[in-house]
């Protein structure tokens, strides 16, 4: 028996564009290896007025509500329901029945959320398991944008119970899936770990089916051997009967010697054939008994293997269910704590004032730290500018010193040359 997969997610405004890109295969994803883009042409949207721009369709629906208050920035703009089952379920369905399965699911969910709120019902056939992304704007019956009020614990339980009932009444053989609580994130197709666990379970189911098929074949072979054994045993019994029969040979005389001899030879030949048949039958019987014992041993081994796989399968499913329950409990605890905190601040004026004061102090502290950081950065820049000016001044002074030294050396050389000329004897000058 297969199980229905029904998973709910909530999306804020900033996530809508990414969901649209994924559903419509606007670009290839390198983070999802499960997508076979060669089969993406087989995907289809069951919503007749599906929009290629989710954000625009959502905003148009919100505008239609004529809300008095502005929509909060962190409000949930879109909810998504993933509908699917295991691979074994879809393998038994022809393409037209697979489409009917999603059409029936879409019709039921549309009635649940309201047709005017549906954005898309995209069916993906290019991943390992066919599934439908049913997207809608979370509008309450009285015209408010409120996902939390639509998907309460009770309403989601009811949805998870009534949808499989509807599908069963439509001729689909599947049961209610694992219960999922509102706010629980990514426990079905959107979680890599859960996908791997589901694939492992599917692999175990495939292995179980293969082993069961082999077991059936071995049982058929065993049955055929049993029939052959019974046939050979009947032949052996006939041969033993022939050997046990004592045929009287008439007394020989000169008159009937020839006929008595022929009769004796016939009896001997008959006995030889019986003995040979019995030997062959015995040999075949021993071989078939050995083959039968071997088959029985193989059948037992296969049966034990099936039991082991089924036990492993049950353990894996228990682990998954336990993990989901743990996540649900954790989420419920967090939601409860959050609700208690909100109630505390909502009804306790002093606490609310303390919270506001704390938040104000935090903002002031953040501003002070930012100003301090800015001042330090300015000081560092000023120091760097001063260091650069000092370097430039030192370089200029060094250049001036070098120039002065060169000038001094030149003056000394000139002075030495002049003194040398003064010391020369007058007669050594040029003659007239």
Secondary structure topology:
Elements: E1 2-3, E2 5-12, H1 16-23, E3 44-45, H2 54-65, E4 76-84, H3 87-91, H4 95-113, E5 118-124, E6 131-136, H5 147-150, H6 153-169, E7 174-175, H7 192-244, H8 257-347, H9 349-423
Parallel strand pairs: 1-7
Antiparallel strand pairs: 2-4, 3-5, 4-6, 5-6
Helix pairs in contact: 4-6, 7-8, 8-9
Strand content: 5-15%
Assembly state of the chains shown? single chain
Which strand order does the major sheet show? 2-4-6-5-3
Task: List low-pLDDT spans.
Answer: 180-191, 428-432
- Would you identify the CATH architecture of the largest domain? 2-Layer Sandwich
Order of helices and strands: EEHEHEHHEEHHEHHH
GO molecular function, one term: DNA binding
Organism: uncultured Desulfovibrio sp
Keywords: Coiled coil
Pfam family, one: Mob_Pre
Task: List its traits.
alpha+beta; BirA Bifunctional Protein, domain 2; Helix Hairpins; 3 domains; 5-stranded antiparallel sheet; elongated
Written overview of the protein:
The protein is an alpha+beta fold. It has 3 domains: about 1-180, BirA Bifunctional Protein, domain 2, CATH 3.30.930; about 205-245 and about 260-320, Orthogonal Bundle (Helix Hairpins); about 350-395. The chain has 9 helices and 7 strands. The protein has helices at about 15-25, 55-65, 85-90, 95-115, 145-150, 155-170, 190-245, 255-345, 350-425, and strands spanning about 1-5, 5-10, 45, 75-85, 120-125, 130-135, 175. Strands 2-4-6-5-3 form a 5-stranded antiparallel β-sheet, with helices on both faces. It has a two-stranded parallel sheet with strand order 1-7. Strand 5 (about 120-125) and strand 6 form a beta hairpin. The longest helix has about 90 residues, at about 255-345. The radius of gyration is 48 Å and the shape is elongated. Residues about 180-190 and about 430 have low confidence and may be disordered. One of its GO terms (molecular function) is DNA binding. This is Plasmid recombination enzyme. It holds the Pfam family Mob_Pre.
């Amino acid at each position: 028996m297969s199980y229905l997969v029904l998973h709910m997610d909530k999306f804020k405004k900033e996530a809508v564009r990414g969901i649209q890109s994924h559903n419509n295969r606007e670009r290839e994803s390198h983070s999802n290896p499960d997508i076979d883009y060669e089969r993406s042409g087989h995907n289809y949207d069951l919503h007749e007025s599906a929009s290629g721009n989710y954000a625009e369709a959502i905003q148009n629906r919100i505008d239609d509500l004529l809300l008095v208050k502005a929509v909060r920035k962190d409000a949930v703009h879109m909810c998504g329901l993933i509908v699917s089952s295991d691979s074994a379920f879809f393998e038994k369905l022809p393409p037209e029945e697979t489409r009917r399965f999603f059409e029936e699911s879409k019709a039921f969910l549309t009635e649940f959320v309201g047709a005017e709120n549906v954005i898309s019902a995209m069916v993906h056939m290019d991943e390992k398991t066919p599934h439908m992304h049913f997207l809608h704007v979370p509008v309450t019956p009285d015209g408010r944008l409120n996902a939390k009020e639509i998907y309460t614990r009770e309403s989601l339980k009811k949805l998870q119970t009534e949808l499989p009932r509807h599908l069963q009444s439509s001729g689909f053989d599947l049961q209610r899936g694992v219960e999922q609580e509102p706010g629980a994130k990514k426990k079905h197709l959107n979680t890599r770990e859960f996908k791997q666990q589901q694939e492992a379970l599917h692999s175990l189911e495939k292995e179980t089916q293969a082993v069961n098929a082999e077991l059936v074949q071995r049982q058929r072979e065993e049955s055929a051997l049993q029939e052959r054994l019974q046939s050979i045993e009947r032949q052996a019994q006939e041969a033993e009967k022939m050997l046990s029969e004592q045929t009287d040979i008439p007394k020989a005389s000169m008159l009937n010697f020839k006929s008595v001899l022929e009769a004796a030879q016939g009896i001997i030949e008959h006995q030889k054939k019986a003995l040979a048949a019995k030997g062959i039958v015995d040999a075949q019987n021993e071989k078939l008994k050995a083959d039968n014992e071997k088959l029985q041993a193989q059948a037992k081994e296969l049966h034990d293997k099936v039991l082991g796989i089924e036990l492993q399968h049950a353990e894996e499913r228990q682990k998954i269910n336990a993990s989901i329950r743990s996540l649900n409990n954790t989420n419920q605890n967090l939601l409860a704590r959050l609700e208690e905190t909100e109630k505390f601040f909502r009804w306790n004026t002093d606490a609310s004032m303390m919270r506001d004061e704390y938040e104000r102090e935090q903002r002031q502290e953040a501003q002070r730290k930012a100003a301090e950081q800015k001042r330090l950065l300015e000081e560092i820049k000023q120091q760097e500018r001063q260091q650069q000016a000092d370097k430039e001044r030192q370089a200029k002074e060094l250049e001036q010193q070098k120039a002065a030294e060169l000038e001094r050396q030149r003056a000394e050389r000139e002075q030495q040359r002049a003194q040398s000329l003064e010391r020369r004897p007058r007669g050594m000058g040029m003659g007239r």
